[in-house]
Design brief:
single chain, 546 residues, alpha+beta, five-stranded antiparallel β-sheet, 18 strands, 25% strand
């Protein structure tokens, strides 16, 4: 009876605490959203001002109706209007330094520009934001406006002190999740809030606001992220949960003291009753615990000759059935895993579960095909031993196959030093099949590039890949004979991909117009129309720009 009274009290207390926490959480989220928006506005104001100053500088320099001294005076006035900007530098067409207008206490050494647009340079401890503007004509061809991170850090520190009473609760990160403004002690590591939210780098290219709770070195915190897609940055506001929910902690302590006192009385009375009447149930609970740990060989210790003993026997029967079912599931999972390396996941699941079979036949599907070939492998094979050549191919194909699997594709076959992979639309793989194929091709190039120094040392071979990608309809299924069959694709799309691979040079990925149309977010360069062996009409070929 004491327990019956304790449970409602506990539930009501938890409900009250949850309501209070939800209310405080809503207020905290609104506060952090307001602060992160204010911080983002500060960053935008500084960056827009710097970008505008670069444009004004270019316009002023192009005004030949005024003398040089008057133009420099105007630029000094504009620089003084933006205290966060440290310098305006001028470079010629060869990126050689010409002159600079430098604010007080600003560094005089200014690196040359890299091109057009926004960049972050300098050391991780003191990064610098640069706005580089290219001028079409005149002796000055590049204008570089510099904003040191320390100037932005001062504004964010003041905002953090004003809103939260501490200096390090507002900071800025780049799309590599590294702190570039504020939080000096975090410059060498990724902020934990990004580990919890799994914030992708692609999210920095679009506006996004997200609030999350996380743990930082054992300290529970609540934080908010606001992206600045124009510069691929994000403003982060975070502070300890204990500070955000201080009043909730006091209420929780009062409730726990009250509940603890009542629970002590309940436990003392309950123990007396439990020892006398609930011993068999405790043993059954321990039996269920052993079953939950997958110890299905455990037997019931209850011998009371009543319903509890019958319950123990039922649990034993259940454990035996679960053990048999688990063995069958492991067997099916192994079969499915083995088949999935050679067949699409839906086909592998169907065969492993017994619903489908491996029979000759096929169906028309829209697929994307990759051919990846090792450039100059024939020359390498001529001057090395067969063992070395095979060892190299085994190592290469092992990783290339895993790349295909990771992007939801299927390895169709290995043709000498070439791998053919197929991508189809499926529920498990998800996403655009053409995009997945292009990502797989890019990962293949990166893998080969990262292993090039080791291969040059171990095999004396500068390996490079040439990749062809095509998409279209093909007949896909089990082809061959009853004695020997393989799951493959037949169609013009396969031939086109193979021809593109033979046309591609080292470290290049060539694709068709259909591939380019299916991935508008990927940058392509048209190489014009090319005649492919075996085709009457030439097709337009595109190169994927990495």
């Amino acid at each position: 009876m004491l327990i019956v009274g304790l449970v409602p009290m506990f539930i009501l207390g938890l409900a009250f605490l949850r309501l209070q926490r939800d209310g405080l959480g809503h207020v905290e989220r609104e506060l952090e959203a307001a602060v992160v928006d204010e911080a983002s506005s500060n960053v935008r104001d500084v960056f827009h001002g710097a970008a505008e100053l670069a444009t004004i500088t270019a316009t002023t320099l192009a005004d030949d109706t005024r003398d040089a001294d008057a133009r420099i005076r105007d630029l000094r006035t504009e620089l003084a209007r933006l205290p966060q900007v440290s310098s305006i530098a001028f470079f010629d067409d060869e990126r050689h330094f010409i002159d600079a207008i430098v604010a007080d206490n600003a560094p005089t050494e200014i690196p040359p520009p890299e091109g057009e647009g926004f960049r972050i340079i300098g050391s991780p401890d003191d990064p610098i934001f640069r706005f580089e503007h290219k001028i079409a004509e005149g002796p000055v061809r590049f204008v570089v406006v510099t904003v040191p991170s320390s100037s932005l850090g001062t504004r964010l520190t003041e905002l953090s002190l004003t809103r939260f009473g501490s200096a390090g609760d507002v900071y800025v990160v780049n799309d590599s999740k590294r702190v570039v403004v504020g939080k000096i002690e975090r410059r060498d590591r990724r902020p934990p809030i990004f580990d919890v939210t799994e914030y992708p780098a692609a999210a920095f290219s679009s506006p996004m606001l997200m609030t999350s709770e996380f743990v930082d070195n054992g300290v529970s915190k609540v934080g908010t992220i606001r992206t600045l897609p124009a510069w691929r940055l994000a403003v982060v506001v975070e502070r300890p949960t204990d500070e955000a929910f201080a009043s909730l902690a006091k209420t929780r302590r009062a409730f726990m003291w009250t509940l603890g006192g009542f629970a002590t009385i309940s436990v003392i009375a309950g123990l007396i009753v439990t020892r006398r009447a609930l011993g068999p149930i405790s043993r059954l609970i321990r039996l269920v615990g052993r079953y939950s740990q997958r110890d299905f060989a455990a037997r019931s210790e209850v011998h009371t000759h009543d319903e509890l003993e019958a319950l123990g026997g039922s649990l034993e029967q259940m454990a035996d059935e679960l053990s048999a079912s688990e063995f069958e599931l492991r067997r099916r999972a192994k079969i499915e895993a083995d088949l999935a390396r050679f067949l699409p996941s839906e086909v592998a699941q169907s065969v492993a579960s017994g619903r489908g079979s491996l029979e000759l036949g096929g169906e028309r599907k829209r697929i994307t095909v990759i051919f990846a070939d090792v450039v100059a492998f024939t020359t390498f094979a001529e001057r090395t031993s067969p063992e070395h050549a095979v060892a190299f191919l085994n190592e290469l194909f092992t990783i290339l196959s895993e790349i295909v699997f990771r992007h939801g594709g299927m390895v169709d076959k290995f043709i000498g030093d070439c791998i053919m992979a197929i991508f189809v639309d499926s529920k498990d793989a998800g996403g655009n099949q053409v995009a997945r194929a292009l990502m797989a091709a890019e990962d293949m190039h990166r893998f080969v590039e990262s292993n090039l120094p080791r291969w040059q040392k171990e095999y004396d071979f500068a390996a490079r890949l040439a990749v062809g990608v095509a998409t279209g309809e093909a007949l896909v299924g089990n082809l061959g004979s009853e004695a020997r069959m393989e799951y493959t694709a037949i169609g013009d799309v396969v031939n086109v991909a193979a021809r593109l691979e033979s046309l591609a040079s080292a470290q290049r990925t060539l694709a068709t117009a259909e591939v380019a149309a299916a991935c508008p977010d990927v940058e392509f360069t048209s190489l014009g129309k090319h005649a492919l062996r075996g085709r009457v009409e030439p097709i337009e070929v595109f190169e994927v720009m990495s």
